[in-house]
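Journal club side-thread
Mid-discussion, someone asked how the predicted structure for our own chain would compare to the paper's figures. Pasting it here so we can look after the session.
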Amino acid sequence: MKTINLHGTLISGKGEGENFVKLAWVRKQIQEKLGFTPYPGTLNLKLDKKNIKLNKTLHKEKSVEISPHEGFHRGKCFQAHIASSIDGAVVFPEVANYPENIIEIIAPVNLREKLQIKNGDSVEVKIKL
């Protein structure tokens, strides 16, 4: 299986990912399509220039799609392995002007607590294609 390894710096998000992941129809699709029930929140990583190029490559790859309800945006997902220990997914919200240097990660657990990480820490993500 082909993978792309990304490294990013943990940052705080705006809470929008958390609100999205809490929606019943989103949770159902993640369970059905990715095989886990997501913790209600996302882990946000800021990428450097090298990793932004890898991130752009991902947008050309086949992904798992979260189909939106009316008034919401589509999400593209890739299964991922976070910090060499936790299976989850990288989510790309398809919204206008979404920053190219930010990725959002979902998992069945609270990643900050499970990995004992804080803002500024480096996190590795292996994305499965």
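Post-session note: The helical segments are 16-21, 24-34, 49-58, 111-115.
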